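Kindly go through the entry underneath: sequence plus fold tokens. Please state briefly how this chain folds according to its tokens.
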Amino acid sequence: MFKAYTLLSLLTIAWQLSTAQPYHILIKGGHVIDAKNNINEVMDIAVQDGKIARVAKNIDATKASQVINAKGLYVTPGLIDVHVHVFYGTDADRAYSNGPLATIPDAFTFRTGVTTVVDAGSSGWRNFALFKKQVIDLSQTRVLAFINIVGEGMRGGVYEQDTKDMDGKLTGMTARRYNDHIVGIKVAHFVGSEWTPVDEAVKAGKLSNKPVMIDFGGSTPPLSIEELFTRHLRPGDIFTHCFGQLRDREPVVDVQSQQIKPFVVEAQKKGIVFDVGYGSISFAFSQAIPALKSGFYPNSISTDIHANSMNASMKDLLNVMSKFMSIGMSLPGVIQAVTWNPAREIKHEELGHLSEGAIADIAILHLRSGKFGFFDHTGYKVEGTQKLECALTIKGGKVVYDLDGLATPPVPARGG
């Protein structure tokens, strides 16, 4: 009797194991675009224990606990916005550095397919620990950071002009201390003809083995970007706001000939990274359109999102991606510019792709057809026929945003 009971138990366990569902999530029938793995076709993606378990055609839907019908949709790695400002706070005198001009990451990320953001210098070595405690540690979104060469970060006004508070050694040491969270060094908003901010940032970058991101601020006459690229920056360093056209910054496209400047093309070939960093006034179609026509494309597309830019012409990352499609970039091109390219720029190559075993950060996107208007801060408007919209976002193997209830069974509500 004892042996019979044991045999029955074993048979029951064996049956349960044979019918168990090996995948937590299965995305069926979506058009997968994954630049790292050179995938651009309809595939299924299985997720288990927070990782990509399998990418293949016609995976059995009965083997998944939750199935997402992605037919007619595009499936991509979770989007990476490499230039944002999310060190939000209540100090009215601190702008983007624990102040009201920054924005809460979870309030805009998942609904746009973004799973990782990189704060672009809102904090400096003096207050990065507060930024980590107040924002990074409390966010569902993966928040990484460029640390500002200014110790106070982007506090605004005279604080960002103080070259005595630009310390490459202390900044580099802080970047090394918080190596898992700080991905690089940022220069921003300096007004003047000195090279001190850039050179101190590069010093910090060398000390920490991290790239530098340059917002070239402003000066009259403008500082030479050719000198910046050839004498100060290293391969892998990032020139953000690359399609800005302002009186106190030198543009990448010659205004008279409407051609990309030859030394800009050479700089990109040698490894200088060109990032959009859209912002409020740091993008103009007058630069982007002739640049693309010349065959010059940005390495990464980012928003420079903050409390002002998100309600102006920028809006969000999907809107900026749609703008670039309207002026000549392909869908695979813009996807690569917000996934695998930025992952490599910040040296986090565990992100930005859908390889088996990779972190299961996934965006599922609609590509809407119609008549759409895209404008810049100058009022110049371009009409497009396609616009991206996020249908569903998965972060670390969990559905965190589902616009139309694609997941079956539905995702349970969280919180109160």
Observations:
- Residues 10-19 have pLDDT under 50 and may be disordered.
- Residues 2-19 form the longest helix (18 residues).
- Residues 9 and 281 are 69 Å apart (CA to CA).
